[in-house]
Amino acid sequence: ACQLTHQHTDRVIQLRKAHLQEEGELEKVRRKRHLDFLDILLLAKMENGSSLSNKDLCAEVDTFTFEDHNTTASGISWILYALATHPKHQQRCQEEIQGLLGDGASITWDHLDQMPYTTMCIKEALKLYQPVPGTGRELSTPITFPDGCSCPEGHVEVVLSIYGLHHNPKAWPNPEMFDPSHFASGSAQHSHAFLPFSGGSR
């Protein structure tokens, strides 16, 4: 099964590489406002200026496709749950979406900028019911914390409770309440107070 999965991944990568070689396609992709995951990887350059190897590309795509889909499905389920249990907010999202799209169009990335209330509700649901409750990272540089404690780089695993961060009353007023206004423009939260799918390099 793993070999079949890897073959599928490699085939997808090779097809996309071939498509990007077609005349004008690469420039079209570079002009896009939002790139898909595979295009980001194919256009990425490492520190030495070289592209990712086929092995590295396959590893990244396999991780994204066959592991991360679970957190996405979980996130969507919790968003739907939060809206179902808060019908007032659900109604407002429905009105916002129908006002923008009518009854027939599909939502695209470009529409999200025009749906501020729905976006606030999505973020609030992911704050309350984060798909990734915690994460660990190995330090790439030494760090000193505000209390004076420090950790060296290397083999030190730092664990962050994303659940604790998202439910911290110092970061969020009334953190246990479903309140989309936590994400209203001009709200004072720190940019790293909201990490629904963790953050930083993997």
UniProtKB/TrEMBL annotation:
GO MF entry, a single one: oxidoreductase activity, acting on paired donors, with incorporation or reduction of molecular oxygen, reduced flavin or flavoprotein as one donor, and incorporation of one atom of oxygen
Entry's family note: Belongs to the cytochrome P450 family.
Transmembrane segments: none
GO cellular component terms, A-Z: endoplasmic reticulum membrane
Any Pfam family: p450
First-listed, main subcellular location of the protein, grouped into a coarse class: endoplasmic reticulum
Protein source organism: Macaca fascicularis
Name recorded for this polypeptide: Uncharacterized protein
UniProt keyword list: Endoplasmic reticulum, Heme, Iron, Membrane, Metal-binding, Monooxygenase, Oxidoreductase
PANTHER family in the record: CYTOCHROME P450 4A11-RELATED, CYTOCHROME P450 FAMILY 4
SUPFAM superfamilies hit by this protein: Cytochrome P450
UniProt-annotated location(s): Endoplasmic reticulum membrane
